[in-house]
Each structure stands twice: as C-alpha cells, then as structure tokens.
Specification:
Layout lengths: L42 H14 L20 H7 L2 H4 L11 H18 L3 E3 L5 H18 L7 E5 L5 H8 L3 E5 L9 H7 L4 E6 L12 H10 L3 E6 L18 E4 L19 E3 L10 E5 L8 E5 L14 H37 L15 E4 L1 H7 L3 H9 L7 E2 L8 E4 L7 H20 L1 H5 L12 H6 L12
Parallel strand pairs: 2-3, 2-4, 4-5, 5-6
Antiparallel strand pairs: 1-7, 6-7, 8-9, 10-12, 11-12
Helix pairs in contact: 2-9, 4-9, 5-6, 9-12
Keywords: Oxidoreductase, Pyridoxal phosphate
Catalytic activity: N(6)-[(R)-lipoyl]-L-lysyl-[glycine-cleavage complex H protein] + glycine + H(+) = N(6)-[(R)-S(8)-aminomethyldihydrolipoyl]-L-lysyl-[glycine-cleavage complex H protein] + CO2
GO molecular function: glycine binding; glycine dehydrogenase (decarboxylating) activity; pyridoxal phosphate binding
C-alpha cells in the first residue's frame, strides 16, 4: 500500500479545526523557518489510509496471539469503559486531596487487594512499567543495605533464564550481576547458588514460574539461602498470571515484588504503553518507598485524606501516582473476578498451556518434558540440524494460519526456542485450531521443508530483511532531495 506521503497532492486540504478565535501570542523562542512537510490529503483519503493500515495490523482482536512470557490476553471492554468515566479522566494531579476522594479510594482499595494477592505490606503505584518497577525494587534494596551500613553488598544474583530486564535493571541500580545456572529441570542449581551467595550479595532477582514455564519447587530453600547470606529476595511478577490467588510471593520468602498491571491485570499492552508496574514490599522496606502516599486524615473520616512522604523515601520515580487510569482498569478487573475468579484465572492459564503441550509433544521436542505452568518451550534444534528448518521458519509458517508467532529464541538457555503462552482467555476450540496448525507445519517440514522455509505466503508482505531493518532503519520519508 502507498505511504501517506505518496497519497499527498499539493493544495489538498481538510477541515478538522475551526479558525483560532484568540490572539496568537507565541513565545520568543527559536521557530521553524519553514512549515513542516506534512502530507496534503482529504479527510476521506486520510480515513481510508488508516483503515487500510488497521487491516494489516495484527492484534488479539484478529486471532490467537500466543506470545510467550508476555500474557497477550483478552482485556474486558468493561474495564475500558470504567477507565473512561469523566470522574476519572477529568481530574488533575495537583487538585487538593479532598476534591479527588473517589480516585484516592481507587488507589487505596487496589492497594489492599494487591497486598492480599502478594502477601506484602505496602504498595507504591509510581512505576510506569514493569521494568521501572524492577528498578524501583532494587533501589529499595540498595537503600536498605546502605541504611544498615552494608554498602559493600554490590551483587545481585540472577538466573540464566531471567527476563532481560532483570540484569539491565540491576546494572542501572549500580549492581554487579552474578549469573546463576539452571539445572537439568530448568530450575536454579542450588549448589551453584550456595557458592555464589555471600557477603557481597545484596539480593536475588527471580521469576517463579520462570521463563521456561517451570515453577521452582525449591523456592523456600532458595530464598532461605539468600537471606542467610544477608541478601534480600526480589520477585519478578511478570509471570504472576500462572499463580495469582494460589501462591503469594511474600509467603515463600520474597521481600519485594513488582506487578505488571498491563499483563496480569487487564490493560492492553504493546506498542510502547501505557504500562504500570506497582511495587509491593514488606513493612521493613516501606520507609524507602518513592513518592507521596495518600493516607486517611488523623480524624479518621473516610472523606479526609492527606499526602505524606515516607521517612527515607528514595524520591520520585515518575510524577504523582504514575498512570492512574491503568489502576482503574486493574481494580475493575479484580472486582469483576472476585475472590473465586482470581485463582480460577491461574488454573485456566495452567490448564491451557498443559493441554497444548500434551497435544504437541509427540512431534515437537519440549525443552522440559514435565508439567508446566502458564507457558511451555519447544526446542527445535533437531529440526534445524536435520531439515534445516529453524524456529523462525515455524513462526513464520504460523502466520499463514492466521496465528501470531510465539516468542522466538528466548529464553537463551534453549536452542531454537519457541515459547508458547496460550493464556486463560482462549477457548478449547481456539487451542485445537492452533494445535492443528502446528501439526500441519510439522507434516510440511517432514515432506517439503523448503515450503516451510518459504513462508509466509498469504500475508501482505513476505520475508523481510529483519537484520537490515534493525541496523539501518528508515525512519523518515525521502522527498527526493527537495527542501
């Protein structure tokens, strides 16, 4: 399809805004010498252009989206409608506390729910993403150790199967990353952990279940080893979808955690946001939490609120309470699910993943052939060696079946990895359709591998030069040298 600039015709216009009815008063700052080169199109052409783009986009509303470790699940429209209420959208963060008591109640109620879910004592909603939540949690750990005169603790233990944000966040917080190896079952090697935990250990960052979809059954021993070495335990809540309502991080030895509201708690994510990564912690870390906190006034009235700083706060991570409307969506989601619906969410996520894995493991080698949690990982290294068909080829072939590819080549400890997370919101019929697609691709690999390597054949574009696109992206339109 044509770019919007290629649709442009000099002099073509549309009327979107009325004429300005106030005196223009521009500040005395450097201004453009010439107007920007914007496309000149009619409203009809603009509408058709973006409608055509929408038809070529791929999202959950188009079909199965089993992107492993990302929990790309259906988010109820009800939550979107609640977040669009004028009482939530029409407020300003600098309003006096007594004028936004409804918003404050949302935050207060959601904190109570998240404390119950995580087994923690306090929550901050400032972080605007899971990665920023990780960074916040690590700053809490750093502040704790420094307050105790243990600034020499400068190492964070991180498994080799961790999400990439874990070592990145640790490095940003000024820590040295110490990698822990996984054993043959996909869990932390306890002996390796014992050898690496010591007087320089500030903490452990761990996802459980981990990125290969395995719940580490040694978790209590793992957290005890770190605590006995003087470190703290950080729970990466990215995979909470598998255990929410069933396992509480605070009950299995963790001191601080972040929650991805845009994954587990019903906010559409992808495309850069919006996100929210609230951090929950035990009471001994609460004095370091960032930002202002809304608390009920001393009079005890439900309508009286005041904003306070924690005693030794690490400062602001973002402005005010972060992305507030994401919190509205999360609260609405939890209210809709109720006490019984939350664990049912986890049960169904685990059931769907194990159902798909059981239906495919006779032909697709599983990285860890055991009961999984919310996702499973296939190891296609043997296909690559024998038929020269890669995980990338299988992922591309799925596009011809109307299925978004699963995560490729992650986690890094599994060669030719394909990681599938069906989530709890998909029906058995959808899963059966996806299983049939995987099996059809397998048959094609056996009979005609070149056909698989030539996929996709039905999409608007075929194989792209992804390496060149990443290294030499074209980010602006070439007007052919014209100014």
């Amino acid at each position: 399809m044509k770019l919007i600039f290629e649709r442009s015709v000099p002099g073509r216009r549309m009327s979107l805004f009325p004429e300005c009815d106030v005196e223009e008063c521009l500040p005395e700052v450097p201004m453009r010498e010439a107007p920007p080169r914007l496309p000149e199109v009619s409203e009809n052409e603009l509408d058709r252009h973006y409608t055509a783009l929408a038809r070529e986009a791929r999202g959950l509303n188009d079909g199965f989206y089993p992107l492993g470790s990302c929990t790309m699940k259906h988010n109820p429209l009800l939550n979107e409608r609640m977040a669009a209420l004028e009482g939530f959208t029409g407020v300003h963060p600098l309003q006096p506390a007594e004028t936004v008591t409804g918003c404050t109640e949302v935050i207060d109620t959601l904190e109570k729910y998240l404390k119950t879910i995580t087994g923690m004592d306090r929550v901050t909603f400032q972080p605007a993403a899971g990665s920023q939540g990780e960074f916040t949690g690590l700053l809490l750990i750093r502040a704790y150790h420094e307050a105790r005169g243990e600034g020499e603790r400068n190492e964070i233990l991180i498994p080799d199967s961790a999400h990439g944000t874990n070592p990145a966040s640790a490095a940003m917080a000024g820590y040295r990353v110490v990698e822990l190896v996984s054993d043959e079952n996909g869990m932390i090697d306890l002996e390796d952990l014992r050898q690496k935990a010591g007087p320089k250990t500030a903490g452990l960052m761990l996802t459980n279940p981990n990125t290969v979809g395995i719940f580490d059954t040694d978790i209590r021993e793992i957290t005890a080893i770190v605590h006995n070495a003087g470190g703290l335990c950080y729970y990466d809540g990215a995979n909470l979808n598998a255990v929410i309502g069933l396992v509480r991080p605070g009950d299995i030895g963790f001191d601080v955690t972040h929650l991805n509201l845009h994954k587990t708690f019903s906010t559409p994510h992808g495309g850069g946001g919006p996100g929210a990564g609230p951090v929950a912690c035990k009471s001994f870390l609460a004095e370091y939490l960032p930002g202002l906190r809304a608390v009920r006034g001393e009079a005890g009235s439900s309508d009286t609120w005041q904003y306070v700083w924690e005693k030794h706060s690490i400062g602001n991570m973002t402005g005010f309470y972060g992305n507030f409307l994401i919190l509205v969506r999360a609260l609405c989601y939890l209210e809709s699910l109720g006490r019984d619906g939350v664990p049912e969410l986890a049960h169904n996520a685990v059931l769907n993943a194990n159902y798909m894995m059981a239906k495919l493991k006779d032909i697709y080698p599983m990285a860890y052939d055991r009961i999984c949690m919310h996702e499973f990982v296939m190891n296609l290294d043997s296909f690559h060696e024998k038929a020269h068909v890669s995980a990338l080829d299988v992922a591309k072939a799925l596009l011809d079946f109307g299925i978004h590819p699963p995560t490729m080549y992650f986690p890094l400890i599994v060669p030719e990895a394909l990681m599938v997370e069906p989530t709890e919101t998909e029906s058995r019929e959808t899963l059966d359709g996806a299983i049939a697609a995987f099996r059809a691709i397998y048959e094609a690999m056996v009979k005609n591998p070149e056909r698989v390597k030539a996929t996709p054949a039905t999409t608007p574009v075929r194989r792209l030069d992804e390496v060149t696109a990443a290294r030499k992206p074209v980010l602006k339109y070439d007007f052919g040298g014209a100014e």
